[in-house]
Design brief:
140 residues, binds zinc ion, 2 domains, two-stranded antiparallel sheet
């Protein structure tokens, strides 16, 4: 379902509520006016967006990606709640996300993580148990 079709259905639902009130209040002044006739005249079939919203920007233009070999190896917390599950295919726990910044120089980490990796290295177990409470099993 697209955002547009959700908007159209919500708008039409609101319109019908308005038609109901118009018919209730004015049907004695406008003969033949019914919810159906108003619906026929004013029903919304499409929406047109003027300008681009931030939402469509992020949908349509994904950020330029740094290749995995050039990418910092640090684990980041990422979203809240963070990614935390057991991957049966790889037989290991997946916690957090990988930093999206490029590696600095010949090191494995970006300029920020070269100094400190609070959540450890991506692909290895984190140095703390802060992810544990978010652990979910996708299979169950
Ligand atoms: Zn990093």
């Amino acid at each position: 379902m697209s955002l547009d079709s959700i908007l159209v259905s919500l708008l039409n639902r609101d319109m019908e509520q308005i038609f109901r009130e118009i018919v209730n209040d004015y049907n004695d002044k406008v003969p033949g006016m019914t919810i159906e006739s108003l619906n026929k005249m004013f029903k919304i079939s499409d929406v047109k967006r003027i300008g681009e919203s931030k939402l469509t920007d992020s949908f349509e233009k994904p950020k330029e990606k740094i290749s995995d070999t050039c990418r910092c190896m640090a684990r980041i917390w990422g979203s809240t709640p963070p990614v935390a599950y057991y991957c049966h295919k790889k037989s290991k726990y997946i916690y957090g996300e990988r930093c999206t910044r490029p590696k600095k120089g010949n090191g494995d980490y970006c300029g920020l993580h070269i100094k400190n990796i609070p959540h450890g290295r991506f692909g290895e177990l984190p140095p703390h148990e802060h992810f544990e409470k978010y652990l979910v099993t996708p299979d169950s």
